[in-house]
Amino acid sequence: MPVIIDGTNGVSTPNTFAFKNRIIDGGFTINQRGYTSGTSLSSGSYGHDRWKGGASGGTYTFTQGSTGVNTTITITAGSIIQVIEGANLPEGGTYVLSWTGTAQGKIGSGSFGASGITGTITAGTNTNIEFNTGTCGNVQLEVGSTATSFDYRPYGTEFDLCRRYYEQFNYTNAGGANQYITSGVGMAWTGTDVRITLSYYPKRASATCAFSGTIRFATNALGQNFTSMTFDNAGVNTVLLFNGSASGFTAGQAQQVTAQAANTLISVNAEL
Amino acid sequence: MYKQYIGADGSLANAIIRLSDNACIPFATDNTDYQTFKKEVLAGAELQDADGNVMTDASAYIASLP
Fold first, then answer.
1. Rounded to two decimals, what is the model's pTM?
2. Which of A104, A146, A171, A222 pairs as cysteine with A264 (C-beta 3.0–4.6 A)?
3. What sections of chain A are H helices per DSSP?
4. Which of A189, A212, A234 lies at the smallest CB-CB distance from B15?
5. Cβ(A72)–Cβ(A27) under 8 Å?
6. ipTM of the complex
């Protein structure tokens, strides 16, 4: 493929360069939710980052490779979908979808076909990419009608791209008693109300947040565990966690906040 | 099922709790969970007020949201 660089048009074959791939986690390397191979995904439930069950759900199997090494999955039932954010499809026009494996894929409302299918996308429009049963790896959507080699992005970059849509704080207490994971510094808003502000990677939209596990607010003199926390004022990069059922705290006092149970988890979700 | 809740300032939060996983969904029009919440309630999903009572005027409440 020719590469033309001139003062008028700049680089005229951009899909030969890095960041040509509009699919995120096309190598199935990021699995923040810990999707287990062979588990049935209901429609809209997520497996690997950015990939969710299709209209009738979906199931796939895989053996995760070393960190950052692409994995080929086998879709055994239903389909899986990735919704590409319109903000990542600014050009519009013809795009080509390619992958390795026997699954068939489609762009938007197009028909399923083998690797190398093309489709027309309206600039700035969220677009579904879907795969039915078969093997699937190295998924790539790029501008134009000619598929090129898979765009391997740095693992950290791929992770950050995923975190625009979903992120979780997993405060697994791997160290046992008294080796708790520090979550941050909070405060006692009143004697019965403890709070902490959580900052996260900037999200696509104000995020849906959920908590599970046990978290502890404590000073040297007083501590209390909480198994539920409420979120308020969730934005694209911060949210307030609070619990108004505390007791015995001193208003204005800073609190050390720690996870207090294995698998204490906060999820921050702005998926499409 | 969904439930209203009291926010940190003591008034109704600009968010809703999804009872299936206790997730807090902000009233943000580009949040897909929020979009789903409105669709499901309009289709008949149960919506509770902050005291746990089933709201009988859920459709009107949804209409008042952004």
1. 0.92
2. A171
3. 155-163
4. A234
5. no
6. 0.97
